[in-house]
Structures are given as C-alpha cells and as structure tokens.
C-alpha cells in the first residue's frame, strides 16, 4: 500500500507541475526555435502575397494581349486554312508566358505545402535536443525559399516550351473560351464579291482557267464571253483549339459555296496535335509561303495546288528548317481511261532551307512525290479494255526572297516543278483533267512528263507618292508569269493538252485591316498537241471583307 501511495503521490505532483512548466520562461534554444517558426510563417505569407500580385499582373497582360489580338490583325496574312489563301506578313506574336497564368498547382505548392512540411518537421524533432530541431527548421526554411522560386520559374519555362513546340502561332485572335472546358473556338472567313468580264470565249467564265480556252476559229459548245458577277467565293470556317500540358489540340473545318448549284463545298477538315495532322487540307507538296497574291479565285496555272485527305508529320529542326512526311489520298487522272486508287502518294519536303549569303540569304523549299498510278482503259464506245499500273514521281522547288530593288517590301516568288504522272497536282491540269497519264495503243499506261512553274514580282507602293499621301491602308501590285508544258507522246490525240501560259498584273488595296479591294488584268494561251491554240483576256474586280 505504501508503494502504491507513493506512486500516486508522484503522479499527482507530476500533473500539478505541468502548468508550471508551461508558464515557465523559455530557454534560449526554445526562443530561437520559436523565432525561426515565426520567420517561416512570415515568409510563407510573403510568398502568398507575391503570388497574388503575379496573378493580377498576368491577368492584366492577358487582357492586353486580347485587345492587341483584336485590334492589330495583319491585313495581308500568310495562308493558313481558316484565314486567307494569300501570303501574309508575319503576325505580331505575343509570348505565351505573358498570356497564360501560372498553374494553380504551382502556386499551391509554393504557398501551402511549405507550411505543412514545416509543422511536420518541428513536431517530429527530438524534444531532448532543441538545438537540432532549430537547425533542421532553418535548413528547411532555406530550402523552401529556393523551392518557391524554382516552382515559379519551372511553371513559366513549361509555358515557353509549349509555345516552342506548337506548330502554329501561339496567339488565337478572335477566339472565345468554351464554358466548362479548356478549349477556345473561333468562327471566321470572308464575304467576297467578284465581277469577271471575259473579252474572249471561255468554257468557264467566272474565273480564269487557261486550260478552258478553246482553239481559235473553233465554235466550242458552252464557251462564252461577257460578264459574271458572283459571291460563291464567300467562305466560312470553324476552328477549335485546346491547350494541353504537352501541346495544342486543333480542329478545323472550312467550306465555300462553289459546290453544284451554289451549295456548300468542303475545303478543309482536319485535326492537328503539335507536329501531327490528319484530315483534308492543302497537299504537303504545296508551298503556300511562295504563292503570289492574286485577285483571280482560280489562281496561277503552273503552281502546285491540291486539297486532299492525308496523314502528315512535320517536326521542326531549330528555327529555320522543318521536315514534312505525308501519305496522301491516291487518285489517277487519265486522258483516255478511268483512274483507280492505288497505294497512297508519298510526299516529303524540307522547308526553309538556308542557302547561304552567297545566294542572297534566300529561303527556299524542296519537295518530292512518289506515286502509284492505276487506271482502266476505256475505248471510244465506252467499252473497257483492261487495266494497267505505272509509277509517277516529281520534284519541286520554290522560294520567296526580298529584292529591295524599289522598296524594302518587294519580293520575288517562284516555283519550278518537273515530273511524270503528277498532273493532278498542277492547278490548271487539276481543273481540266487527264494530266497524269495516257494509255498507249498497246494498252500500257504511260505517265505524262510535265514541266510547270511561275515567277512573280510583288511591290508595295510607298506613301511618298503624291496620290498615296492622303490614302489610308496599303497598296500592292503583283506581276506574274506562269506556264505548264507537257511532252506529248506521238500516239496522243491532236487536241490533247500540250501547254498553257498566263500573265497577270493586279492592284490590291487594303484601306482597313479587314477590307480588300482588287483589280486584275489577265491574259492566257492554251496550246494543243497539234499546235493549235487559243488566247483569252479577262478583267476581274473583287471586294472582300474578312471576319
């Protein structure tokens, strides 16, 4: 009993001593630890305040970017599906670092997480060694100071890397956010009215298709001269972009009214993720950056122009070079037969190849195509005469270089293309048809050799001319010569397509950012295999409003 009573008394005295211990003055080491914890709390509070200031600044920058995107759209834009088919000057690009806020996770990590870790470290410290606990707390404080800064830098670096890996401009002018998602959408296009006056008979009169010019002295049914006024060239597109941690997802659809009976016609429909694309859009063989600016909706006869379904990969190498590899929709266009589908067309290109100062620092492009041609031969009465297969190939080079002859805004644009069995990719032959191959008398499919190209001079008129001093906006002119030449076989028909040439000159005026007025004079000539030919002249006037 005595022993039990002694234990009871000891426990009772211990309990009574707790309040005394609690109110006893802290030792020097305990005070040092308390001051360290207070400093940590002050630092965390300071980090939270700094992050809040950064969030407000980023929000202001984002609003400024939005205003700049709405008010500073480039009048003459580089052709990107969904904007225009004409070249453009480089847009104003704003850093995504300023556009995108720091992720909430980064802010939470630098503000909330240090508090929890500090409390854990202190509570787990040895009570019998307050000096050790103080040193650990100080070390943790120093580590967290650096970590908080590193997390902000890491978040900003991640944004910059996403922008560098994106294959199109990081800004998305005119888009609005889709509620309940991380995506943004945009509806754009243009309204276009064209007045086309053909001075000579043409089979197609609302644009300038050189291959539709009939031979002189021949009365071809459907060929007519006169004036056409059309708004069918109006187009509309829909685009969605969604930012992800690893890049931007993009979906794009575009249509115009050039279908049968003024109906909708699908122009583009594709999806894109960073450097991969799948869907229908411009062929990888094309070079949109070196395409001259035209009023004519049809465009240059000798340029590569095709839209088709494809799968494309296009990684970038540095800032000046990119490689493209695509498998595109196969189709054979035969003069005296019916084309069939073989294996997919294989297209490869190297863009923006630096050729060196000895060539004036030109930027250029080289692309090749390999094709599998298949077709069924059809006799004069429509009877089938068997099928055959052949191979086609082609190479094209193009470029755009500043001249500086007259003004700093002057450019030379050019393209040269040669190959066999690639007529479907040449603009004029794509419209007229039959340019890939022809069956010989033995029933063998023969690819047609073709040489095509253009050269164009673009000039921007300076404001120091007296008639421009009071004019707002920009005035440009383009002078272009283009050609298509086919090396016909002896067994081909006399009226088969042999070649065309085209000359155009225009004046394009942009009084505001979204309004384009143009006038263009065109002359063309078609020559057949028997050297019969026809010429035509056309005047076009257009007004376009981009939205």
CATH architecture of the largest domain: Beta Barrel
Structure classification:
alpha+beta
Question: Segments where pLDDT lies below 50 for 5+ residues?
Answer: 1-8, 10-26, 73-80, 82-135, 147-169
Strand order of the largest sheet: 2-4-5-6-7-8-10-12-13-14-15-18-19-20-21-22
CATH class of the largest domain: Mainly Beta
Tell me, rounded to a whole number, the average pLDDT: 78
Total of DSSP H or I helical runs spanning 4+ residues: 7
Task: Describe this entry's structure for a reader.
It is a single chain. The protein has 547 residues and is of the alpha+beta class. The protein folds into two domains: 27-169; 194-233 and 260-546, Beta Barrel (Porin), CATH 2.40.160. The protein is built from seven helices and 22 strands. It has helices spanning 2-23, 28-71, 96-99, 104-111, 113-123, 130-165, 427-432, and strands spanning 176-177, 183-202, 224-230, 235-244, 247-256, 265-273, 276-282, 307-313, 316-317, 321-328, 337-340, 345-354, 363-378, 384-402, 411-420, 437-439, 445-447, 449-460, 474-486, 497-510, 515-528, 533-546. It has a 16-stranded antiparallel β-barrel. Strand 9 and strand 10 (321-328) form a beta hairpin. The model is unreliable at 1-8, 10-26, 73-80, 82-135 and 147-169 (pLDDT under 50).
């Amino acid at each position: 009993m005595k022993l039990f009573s002694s234990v009871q008394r000891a426990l009772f005295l211990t309990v009574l001593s707790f309040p005394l211990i609690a109110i006893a003055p802290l030792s020097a080491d305990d005070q040092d630890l308390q001051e360290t914890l207070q400093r940590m709390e002050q630092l965390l509070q300071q980090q939270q305040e700094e992050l809040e200031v950064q969030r407000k600044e980023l929000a202001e920058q984002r609003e400024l970017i939005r205003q700049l995107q709405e008010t500073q759209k480039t009048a003459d834009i580089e052709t990107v599906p969904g904007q225009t088919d004409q070249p453009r000057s480089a847009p104003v690009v704003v850093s995504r670092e300023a556009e995108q806020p720091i992720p909430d996770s980064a802010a939470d990590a630098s503000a909330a997480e240090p508090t929890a870790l500090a409390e854990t470290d202190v509570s787990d410290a040895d009570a019998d060694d307050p000096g050790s606990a103080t040193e650990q707390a100080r070390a943790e404080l120093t580590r967290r100071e650096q970590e908080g800064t590193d997390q902000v830098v890491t978040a900003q670096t991640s944004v910059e890397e996403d922008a560098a890996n994106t294959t199109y401009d990081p800004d998305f002018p005119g888009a609005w956010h889709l509620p309940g998602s991380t995506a943004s959408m945009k509806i754009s296009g243009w309204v276009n009215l064209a007045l086309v006056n053909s001075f000579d008979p043409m089979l197609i009169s609302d644009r300038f298709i050189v291959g539709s010019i009939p031979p002189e002295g021949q009365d071809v049914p459907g060929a007519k001269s006169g004036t056409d006024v059309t708004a069918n060239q109006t187009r509309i597109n829909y685009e969605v972009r969604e930012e992800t941690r690893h890049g931007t997802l993009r979906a794009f659809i575009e249509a115009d009214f050039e279908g049968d009976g003024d109906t909708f016609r699908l122009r583009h429909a594709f999806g894109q993720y960073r450097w991969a694309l799948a869907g229908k859009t411009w062929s990888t063989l094309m070079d949109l950056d070196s395409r001259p600016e035209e009023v004519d909706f049809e465009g240059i006869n000798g340029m590569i122009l095709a839209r088709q379904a494809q799968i494309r990969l296009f990684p970038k190498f540095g800032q000046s070079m990119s490689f493209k590899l695509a498998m595109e929709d196969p189709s054979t266009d035969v003069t005296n037969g019916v084309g069939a589908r073989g294996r997919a067309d294989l297209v490869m290109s190297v863009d923006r190849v630096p050729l060196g100062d000895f060539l004036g620092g030109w930027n250029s492009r080289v692309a090749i195509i390999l094709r599998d041609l298949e077709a069924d031969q059809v006799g004069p009465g429509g009877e089938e005469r068997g099928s055959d297969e052949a191979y086609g190939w082609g190479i094209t080079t193009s470029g755009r270089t500043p001249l500086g002859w007259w003004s700093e805004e002057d450019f030379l644009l050019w393209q040269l293309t040669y190959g066999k069995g690639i007529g479907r990719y040449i603009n004029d032959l794509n419209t007229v048809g039959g340019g890939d191959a022809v069956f010989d008398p033995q029933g063998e499919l023969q690819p047609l050799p073709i040489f095509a190209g253009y050269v164009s001079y673009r000039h921007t008129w300076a404001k120091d001319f007296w008639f421009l001093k009071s004019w707002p906006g920009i005035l440009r002119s383009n002078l272009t010569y283009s050609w298509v030449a086919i090396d016909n076989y002896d067994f081909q028909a006399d009226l088969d397509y042999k070649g065309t040439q085209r000359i155009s000159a225009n004046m394009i005026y942009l009084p505001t950012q979204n309004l384009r007025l143009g006038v263009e004079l065109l002359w063309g000539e078609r020559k057949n295999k028997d050297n019969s030919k026809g010429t035509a002249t056309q005047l076009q006037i257009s007004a376009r409003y981009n939205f």
